[in-house]
Structure formats: structure tokens, C-alpha cells
From TrEMBL:
Region annotated Disordered, chain positions: 101-135
Name of the featured protein: Uncharacterized protein
Positions with biased composition (Low complexity): 117-135
Length: 135
């Protein structure tokens, strides 16, 4: 029985340069971090640990996250949602948000439900109120 020759001691590294490239490209394309780690085939905690110990990788990851944020924002159409959730203040978003807000403020309920409470009986007083009366 023969075993393949080992290159060195210890467990082989899973977060190699190629794996890092796959992960960083996925993040830069706007993929959520959990899915990016699945694409790269590493544990979800691995990139975070490497970013903590490797400043160069931390800088690359920050740049990839910023690019991913921009990529995700590019897919969101201009409107009230983008105004509220992403802080877009372009004319289209501002107008849509103002219109929606105005419509909500001026909408009145055509059939309000009025709840009539039964009149309290003279002797039915909760015990907490009796204690308040006694003091
Ligand atoms: Zn906008």
C-alpha cells in the first residue's frame, strides 16, 4: 500500500491564493459573504480570520466589499425604496418618496372602526385601584 508523498508538515492550506481570488471576485460582484465563501469552498469564518491576521488581505476585502456594495446598489431601481433604504437623493427618488409620503398622509380611513366599551359598574373596581384609593 502506498500513500501519496506529503509536501510538508501539518494540514494543507485551504485559503490559497486562487481561493482568495475566487472569494474576492465574488464579493466584488455583489455576492453576499456567506455565498462567496461557499463559492470559494471555505468556511464562513476563514476570510474573517485571515482579514484579522493579514492586513493586505483585509485591505483587499474592504475594497471588494465596497465594490460589491456599489454593484448591488446599481441593481436597485430609483424610487421610494432606494430613497429610504440607500439614501439616494436624486430627483427621481426624491419625487417618488415625496409623492408616496404625501399620499399616505392624506389617506383617511373611509370606515373607521369605533370600539364602544361597556360602562363600568359602580362596584367593579380592580384591586389595584382599591389599593390606590386606600393609600
Ligand atoms: Zn435615485
Amino acid at each position: 500500500m502506498t500513500t501519496p508523498p506529503r509536501r510538508g508538515r501539518g494540514r494543507p492550506a485551504t485559503f490559497t491564493t486562487a481561493t482568495r481570488r475566487v472569494f474576492l471576485d465574488a464579493v466584488a460582484a455583489g455576492t453576499p459573504l456567506g455565498q462567496a465563501t461557499q463559492l470559494a469552498g471555505v468556511s464562513p469564518t476563514t476570510p474573517r480570520r485571515h482579514a484579522r491576521t493579514d492586513p493586505a488581505f483585509a485591505a483587499d476585502l474592504a475594497a471588494a466589499k465596497a465594490a460589491g456594495r456599489e454593484a448591488r446598489l446599481a441593481n436597485v431601481p430609483h424610487g421610494e425604496s432606494r430613497y429610504n433604504n440607500y439614501g439616494c437623493r436624486c430627483t427621481t427618488c426624491r419625487t417618488a418618496a415625496t409623492t408616496a409620503r404625501t399620499n399616505r398622509r392624506h389617506t383617511t380611513n373611509p370606515d373607521p372602526q369605533v370600539v364602544t366599551l361597556p360602562a363600568p359598574a359602580a362596584s367593579s373596581c380592580p384591586s389595584s385601584l382599591l389599593l390606590a384609593k386606600a393609600s
